[in-house]
């Protein structure tokens, strides 16, 4: 127990006992004062230190005064201004004239105790009142009982608090009926007889009282009215609004609305409530050690938002590299030194007032007990009571800067050689060269041996050292490491104090200040603004410190930022601020107006709000105007803003009414809809239950349709609002159609011929659907069309069946689809069966149907409307839709109109890139390859990706390193990473509308040494230039490495194998030629004479393909799945990029040679897997880069389960040669030939942070196999020679000579490779 370190609570109490904070505060502070010329003025102030009960001899504070920021020089003989014993300032006689105002200004009390420090009070404004002047005076008036009257009295604004009213020369007592306005005027509301009399306004100043003229108020007979009072709001003066107990929540726009006949007029005013600053969190006292970083927190509120300034010992704190203002309110002090001790004050100020709060900082010596009593100082926990009996750690080793940027440096190190304990923690001390402030940063957990130092200055030199400490205390310091941050172009900083005010419904006025940082003068500013929800940012140049944006949308929220430009380019952008333009009356009528007869005396009116872009404000209500028949007089009803229907009752029976609706905002009424007509019932029908069953149902089948007719229920007293027709093959529930209650006929279209359909018919009303009636029919065969001359009436035998009208309606014309946003399209059309004014006066309605052009989603959607337009919402972004319209009138319908198309606008991607994987690059442990797939919801064409990577998954986004990638790439390599380090990767997709969400973090750890990595892939020479590349050693016998000498050795092996192949071919051909009989020669000659274009004997079926056809120009390998199966199945998957990649085939080659074989290589012909011998690849070539049309890929992998490499062989210009099957030699890859991107990766996602490891590339990707001509199915050398023998017997000696010439050309190419 004796060796246990004291707890933090004990240390805190011990420190407070040994080094207590010294209280120092103001008991009284000055306040704003209104003084009168020639009269005395007193500004109170009193400061105290210590606790009077425990410290009766506490030192007294010395009080001084500042006026307008400058100390007052109060001479002893100055009898007019003096400081009283308690610290207050007394001005015995205020001096004030037009040209001499020595006493008016801002005062501040400053108290000092030499042994403690200095504190400053809040500021107070001393204002000297002027001479009273009346700009308007009360006038005589006569009002009736219950009316209201305003008596004017406009005086100087500073004298309004001194104004009062008298009636009959007696002081007037104010009440809820008698209210004095802020400008001094008197409002008399709900007048009574007692209010009659003479009124006058008076201003009491230090001099004689200033009195206005008297005015007689006469009360005439009338009726009194009740005062409207609701909570804290009261209506006074006939129309004025009085608010009691004003709070900040009462701020806003108040509207006074009046209905005059059919119009609504409105006047509005904005109420701004100013609230003085108030502390939500005051700065707290802090203990700290030197070199530490501390922060004084100060949270304030108020309206308008207060500004915060910091003062240290009475002097203003100027922000610098070591004194920083954080989040506009908090003060951060970096790298403490002893001189930083003292009192710090937070001064908050706005237009309504100012406040201050202070805190004390005490710097502890390193030998003193340390701790964190208030949680402010970040002191390492090991700095407790040192144990002199135990050893401390030695110096940490190998301190290096593993990552250096412009503003941050990452340090890593190794543990001390002599840790002398477990769970070591580390402290990093650093300072900028040329300064004496050394800062400290501690590791976050024991054993951590890396730290990132942020917020450094660009192009600056820093010194770093690391100290380890164990339970016995601090150990030895490491050697000093000097590191310079990278430089950056000195562009302007953000423009401070950016403000935006909407001046009209279509304009916003901006203002800002000059940036505080930057290299050179600001040349211009650029204002970026973006409408909320559209993600399309626009910009405009501004040459000054203010600009007015014009032509904006009404009542629309905009996001605005400003960027300053100097000679180096654009600077740091300001933060986004939002502003909403002022509202206005709606510019479009409500949509989709429908009227439905409810009964004989009421009609239900329904509608949808105006389009979002035309509302121009918050819809506060709707006005419904209606009239009877052709009368011009109108009636009106008003609904609330969210109500989209209204039942109009009290109407006459069997009467036609017309309706139209307009939307209302606080600014007034917008345009109204077109008139819509409905006729009330002659008599009221019963709707207490569902309708009865229809009295009859008849069907008449045609080839592709069935004509259905019916009669209504026999009980005519029940309300029928429509009919539901159900039909389907074998079941009536497959499709459902609803028709109007007046309709008696319907044709079901688009049916299958010779099919048995079941049809059901139900009447319905608002209660529900009635009992169905069933019928079935079999459509006619395709070869049996209906006679068009047959009268439809003859098909139905019931005498009460009405005669259907065979004349169809004309389909709508001029269908247009107007795209409004990423999910809304407005469909409009014209109806040629309407008059020229296109006014709908009957009960027709239109059906709009739409579908996408996506094959997998061909489902049709429909909607009904009684207008000539319809808003289709809820669509998918960046999707093509087709629209068509048909019209229905009674039992007549039209065919579908011509289609119109519209593609919704793009919007930002709503999902992140998927299937993100990270793999190491073969033979390059410091290089990784990131692969991904596009987002599933791209919402537009992907124009690019941004890869973020960092060693700290919790770092801020702006601290991650970024790598931009073009939109058509799905893979990217990142080089020069640190070995044995965990990196985190995120990817973000971008389209023309902006950035989508980031993917989940994927972490990957680089290998521990430069020799790590898996077996090298097979490589092929893919270019005629013969550029050698560093292939992997997986297929190279003998363990060849990647040095320059070994490259020559590889080439020598290739030449040796080639020479051996040539010798075998020549010997075999020579032996076969000697055994050729004269009969065979004649047969070959006859074959040559009959077909001179063929040089091979027989057809392609007689010739076995050689082991590897060497093409002269292009050959491509694809990655394959490293399947653990012993006999994997290979598929033929050629993937040409374009039609230009497939060149014409040499006509001299038989067709069978153009078809790659799908047979795998026999096991005896497969080379061994040399996973330990690798070749470094040249710069610019990596396995997963995207190949272009001119540079096909030539990379692959082969090292698992004995599988051979697969390749897609392009059949272009093959050499007329063949080879003896043998183990392939070393294969190289041209650096100019990157491979195809990876395919989509599949697999369950188990964790939010995905894990990638070295060597998993082949296992996580599905195979992308393409074929290469396989080896013969006889592995033995004797069988191969026999094959060669059988092939070579079909050649003449002159042909063999020609083949030898080709082989000599090949040798020249190999020599060229060697020399290159």
TrEMBL record:
Residues 1099-1124 have a biased composition (Basic and acidic residues). Residues 1149-1158 have a biased composition (Polar residues). Its main location: membrane. Residues 1077-1086 have a biased composition (Basic residues). Keywords: Cell adhesion, Cell membrane, Disulfide bond, Glycoprotein, Immunoglobulin domain, Membrane, Repeat, Signal, Transmembrane, Transmembrane helix. The keyword Signal applies. It is found in: Cell membrane. It comes from the Eukaryota. One of its GO terms (cellular component) is plasma membrane. Residues 1-27 form the signal peptide. The chain crosses the membrane at residues 1048-1073. Residues 23-127, 132-218, 277-362 form the Ig-like domain. Residues 375-396, 1077-1213 are annotated as: Disordered. It is a single-pass type I membrane protein. One of its GO terms (biological process) is cell-cell adhesion. Residues 395-488, 494-584, 589-683, 690-783, 811-907, 912-1009 form the Fibronectin type-III domain. InterPro entries: FN3_dom (IPR003961), FN3_sf (IPR036116), Ig-like_dom (IPR007110), Ig-like_dom_sf (IPR036179), Ig-like_fold (IPR013783), Ig_I-set (IPR013098), Ig_sub (IPR003599), Ig_sub2 (IPR003598). Belongs to the immunoglobulin superfamily. DCC family. This is Neogenin. It comes from Oncorhynchus mykiss.
């Amino acid at each position: 127990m004796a060796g246990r370190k004291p707890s933090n609570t004990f240390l805190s109490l011990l420190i407070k006992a040994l080094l207590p904070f010294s209280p120092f505060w103001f008991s009284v502070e000055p306040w704003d004062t209104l003084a009168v010329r020639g009269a005395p003025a007193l500004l109170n102030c009193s400061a105290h230190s210590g606790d009077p009960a425990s410290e009766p001899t506490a030192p007294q504070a010395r009080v001084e005064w500042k006026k307008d920021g400058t100390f007052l020089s109060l001479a002893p003989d100055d009898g007019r201004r003096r400081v009283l014993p308690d610290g207050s300032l007394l001005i015995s006689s205020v001096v004030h004239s037009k040209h001499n105002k020595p006493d008016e200004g801002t005062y501040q009390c400053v108290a000092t105790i030499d042994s403690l420090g200095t504190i400053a009070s809040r500021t107070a404004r001393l204002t000297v009142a002027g001479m009273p002047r009346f700009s308007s005076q009360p006038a005589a008036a006569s009002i009736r009982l219950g009316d209201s009257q305003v008596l004017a009295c406009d005086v100087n604004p500073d004298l309004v608090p001194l104004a009062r009213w008298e009636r009959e020369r007696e002081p007037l007592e104010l009440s809820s009926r008698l209210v004095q306005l802020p400008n001094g005027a008197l409002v008399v509301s709900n007048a009574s007889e007692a209010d009659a009399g003479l009124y006058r306004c008076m201003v009491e100043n230090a001099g004689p009282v200033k009195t206005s003229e008297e005015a007689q108020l006469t009360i005439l007979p009338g009726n009194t009215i009740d005062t409207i009072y609701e909570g804290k709001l009261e209506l006074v003066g006939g129309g004025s609004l009085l608010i009691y107990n004003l709070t900040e929540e009462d701020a806003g726009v108040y509207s006074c609305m009046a209905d005059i006949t059919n119009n609504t007029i409105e006047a509005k005013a904005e109420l701004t409530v100013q609230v003085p600053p108030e502390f939500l969190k005051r700065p707290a006292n802090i203990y700290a050690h030197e070199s530490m970083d501390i922060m004084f927190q100060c949270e304030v509120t108020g309206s308008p938002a207060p500004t915060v300034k910091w003062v240290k010992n009475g002097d203003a704190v100027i922000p610098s590299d070591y004194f920083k203002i954080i989040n506009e309110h908090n003060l951060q002090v970096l790298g403490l030194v002893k001189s930083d001790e003292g009192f710090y004050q937070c001064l908050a100020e706005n237009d309504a007032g100012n406040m201050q709060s202070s805190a004390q900082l005490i710097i502890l010596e390193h030998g003193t007990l340390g701790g964190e009593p208030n949680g402010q100082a970040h002191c390492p926990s090991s700095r407790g009571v040192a144990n002199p009996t135990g050893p401390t750690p030695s110096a940490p080793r190998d301190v290096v800067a593993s990552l250096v940027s412009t503003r941050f440096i990452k340090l890593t190190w190794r543990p001390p050689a002599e840790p002398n304990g477990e769970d070591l923690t580390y402290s990093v001390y650093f300072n900028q060269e040329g300064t004496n402030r050394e800062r400290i940063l501690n590791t976050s957990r024991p054993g951590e041996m890396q730290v990132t130092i942020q917020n450094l200055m660009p192009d600056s030199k820093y010194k770093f050292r690391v100290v380890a400490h164990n339970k016995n205390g601090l150990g030895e310091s490491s050697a000093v490491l000097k590191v310079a941050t990278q430089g950056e172009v000195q562009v302007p900083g953000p423009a401070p104090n950016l403000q935006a005010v909407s001046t009209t419904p279509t304009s916003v006025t901006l203002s800002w200040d000059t940036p505080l940082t930057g290299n050179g003068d600001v040349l211009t500013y650029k204002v970026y603004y973006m409408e909320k929800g559209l993600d399309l940012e626009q910009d405009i140049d501004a040459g000054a410190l203010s600009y007015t944006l014009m032509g904006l949308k009404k009542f629309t929220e905009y996001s605005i930022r400003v960027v300053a430009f100097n000679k180096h380019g654009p600077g740091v952008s300001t933060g986004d601020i939002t502003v909403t333009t002022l509202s206005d009356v709606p510019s479009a009528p409500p949509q989709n107006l429908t009227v439905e007869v409810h009964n004989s005396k009421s009609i239900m009116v329904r509608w949808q709000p105006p389009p979002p872009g035309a509302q121009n404000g918050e819809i506060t209500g709707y006005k419904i105007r209606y009239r009877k028949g052709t009368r011009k007089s109108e009636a009106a009803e008003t609904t609330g803003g969210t109500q989209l229907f209204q039942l109009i009752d009290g109407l006459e029976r069997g009467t036609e009414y017309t309706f139209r609706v307009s939307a209302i905002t606080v600014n007034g009424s917008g345009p109204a809809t077109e008139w819509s007509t409905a006729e009330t019932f002659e008599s009221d029908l019963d709707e207490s239950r569902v309708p009865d069953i229809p009295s009859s149902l008849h069907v008449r089948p045609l080839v592709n349709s069935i004509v259905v007719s019916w009669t209504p229920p026999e009980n005519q007293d029940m309300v029928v609002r429509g009919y539901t027709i159900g039909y389907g093959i074998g079941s009536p529930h497959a499709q459902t159609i609803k028709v109007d209650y007046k309709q008696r006929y319907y044709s079901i279209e688009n049916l299958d011929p010779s099919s048995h359909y079941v049809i059901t018919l139900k009447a319905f009303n608002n209660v529900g659907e009635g009992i169905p009636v069933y019928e079935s029919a079999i459509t006619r065969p395709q070869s049996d069309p209906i006679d068009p001359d047959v009268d439809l009436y003859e098909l139905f035998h019931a005498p009460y069946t009405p005669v259907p009208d065979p004349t169809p309606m004309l389909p709508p014309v001029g269908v247009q689809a107007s795209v409004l946003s990423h999910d809304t399209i407005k469909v409009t059309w014209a109806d040629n069966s309407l008059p020229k004014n296109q006014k709908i006066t009957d009960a027709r309605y239109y059906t709009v149907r739409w579908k996408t052009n996506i094959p997998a989603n061909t489902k049709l959607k429909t909607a009904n409307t009684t207008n000539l337009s319809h808003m289709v919402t809820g669509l998918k972004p960046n999707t093509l839709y087709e629209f068509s319209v048909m019209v229905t009138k009674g039992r007549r319908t039209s065919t579908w109109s011509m289609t119109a198309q519209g593609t919704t606008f793009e919007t930002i991607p709503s999902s992140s890139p998927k299937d993100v994987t990270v793999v190491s690059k073969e033979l390059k442990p410091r290089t990784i390859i990131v692969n991904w797939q596009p987002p599933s919801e791209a919402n537009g064409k992907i124009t690019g990706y941004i890869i973020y990577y960092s060693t700290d998954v919790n770092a801020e986004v702006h601290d991650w390193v970024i790598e931009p990638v073009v939109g058509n790439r799905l893979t990217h390599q990142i080089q020069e990473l640190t070995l044995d380090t965990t990196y985190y990767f995120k990817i973000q997709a971008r389209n023309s509308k902006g950035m989508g969400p980031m993917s989940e973090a994927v972490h990957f750890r680089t290998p521990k040494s430069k020799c790590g990595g898996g077996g090298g892939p097979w490589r092929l020479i893919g270019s005629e230039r013969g550029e050698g590349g560093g292939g992997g050693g997986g297929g190279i016998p003998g363990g060849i490495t990647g040095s320059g000498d070994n490259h020559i050795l590889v080439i020598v092996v290739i030449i040796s194998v080639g020479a051996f192949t040539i010798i075998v071919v020549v010997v075999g051909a020579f032996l076969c030629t000697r055994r050729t009989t004269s009969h065979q020669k004649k047969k070959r000659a006859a074959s040559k004479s009959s077909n001179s274009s063929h040089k091979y004997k027989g057809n392609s079926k007689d010739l076995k393909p050689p082991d590897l056809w060497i093409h002269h120009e292009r050959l491509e390998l694809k990655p394959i799945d490293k399947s653990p199966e012993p006999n994997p199945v290979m598929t033929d998957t050629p993937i040409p990029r374009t039609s230009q990649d497939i060149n014409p085939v040499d006509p001299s080659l038989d067709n069978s040679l153009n078809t790659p074989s799908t047979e795998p290589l026999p096991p005896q012909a497969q080379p061994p897997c040399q996973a330990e011998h690798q070749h470094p690849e040249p710069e610019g070539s990596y396995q997963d880069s995207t190949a272009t049309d001119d540079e096909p890929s030539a990379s692959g992998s082969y090292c698992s389960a004995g599988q051979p490499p697969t390749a897609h062989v392009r059949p272009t210009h093959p050499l007329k040669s063949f080879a003896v099957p043998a183990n392939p030699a070393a294969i190289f890859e041209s650096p100019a030939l990157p491979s195809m991107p990876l395919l989509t990766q599949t697999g369950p996602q188990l964790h939010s942070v995905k894990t990638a490891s070295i060597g998993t590339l082949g296992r996580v990707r599905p195979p992308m196999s393409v074929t290469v001509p396989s080896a013969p199915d006889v592995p033995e050398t004797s069988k191969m020679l026999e094959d060669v023998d059988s092939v070579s017997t079909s050649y003449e000696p002159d042909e063999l000579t020609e083949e030898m010439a080709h082989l000599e050309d090949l040798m020249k190419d190999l020599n060229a490779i060697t020399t290159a």
